Amino acid sequence: MTRFVLSCLMLVIAGLTAFGVTDLHGAPSFSAELKNVVDGKVSVDTVTLEGRDASGAFVLYGAADVGFIADTQIRLTAKDIKVVLQHISDAGFTGMPDSFGGRPQPKDGPRPLYAIRLIRSLSVYIGTVSKSVNQIDGGAQSKELESLITDIAAALTPRKKNGLALHELTLQAGLAKMAAGELAPEALTVGFTVSPRNAGDAPTTVLTIHQATVTINGKPVTMSRAAVNTLCQELGGKLTQIGAKGFPLQLYDEKALIGVSFSLTGIEQQVNISADIYPYNVERATANPDAQRNFVTLKQYLQKVLKDLSPNAP
């Protein structure tokens, strides 16, 4: 009886898989989730879309209602994202192979070495499911994929007129816009590493904020979208307050090796700081007292963020 029930269950799963409702593990398939978003059954907040070709790159974040065309932030609505997803569905994206093209390799004998060149790509992430299609140099070329990416880029490009061009901003100005909520958290990247010096101390801890995802030692931290927004705005304000520039590469810390980095999408200027107890760093800190004080302020703030997110952090 049990075997009969299991056989029936497997037939049901096989049928659902064949119609694109689930995958082999019974989870929702990509095609089913794509339809659910277009039909309004799943929120666009779960969607991230990335595309690139010879003309440039674009990325759309459903959770933030924004996109980036190269280094320009554009505002979007849920309807805008649904229209793009509907076009992707109508173009047969779900049925495309993972890759087109590529140079043929001989069946026997040594294989020649050559660089693989990506011509264009489109990736769609919906919650826990995703699909990516790449066009590789050489071999069969997909006109359908080319047209799909070109059409999406053409539909988004007019939004650049009223967008926020990050390449025109200094890092300081960009951080001020982050603090004011004018720049999406997806644009901010922050790294904070603490390596205690003495044996027996807590292990190294790494806090990373990238594309509105917060991780500690590589593990994502569960946070609401509102909490991520608040954190990134606070960070933008703190970094603006202490000054985004003027830091020497090395400063002083007596207890640990500290690393801090922060940057914004589309802005070339970045800040990378390391601090430790070496004598030449003591000299640099002495020669740059304002920078040292700002560094201590920033370190203490990031340590508080760590403590709030992970009580066992150093």
Provide an overview of this structure.
With 314 residues, this protein is an alpha+beta fold. The chain folds into two domains: 21-165, no CATH class; 169-309, Mago nashi (Mago nashi protein). 35% of the residues lie in helices and 26% in strands. The protein has helices at 2-18, 30-38, 78-90, 143-156, 171-179, 225-242, 279-287, 289-309; strands at residues 47-53, 56-61, 66-69, 72-75, 99-101, 118-126, 129-136, 164-165, 188-196, 205-210, 213-216, 219-220, 250-252, 256-264, 271-276. The strands form two sheets. An eight-stranded mixed β-sheet has the order 5-7-6-1-2-3-4-8, with helices on one face. A hairpin with a 2-residue loop joins strand 1 and strand 2 (56-61). Helix 2 crosses helix 3. The longest helix has 21 residues, at 289-309. It is globular.
Characteristic terms for this protein:
26% strand, seven-stranded mixed beta sheet, Mago nashi protein, disordered N terminus, 15 strands, 314 residues
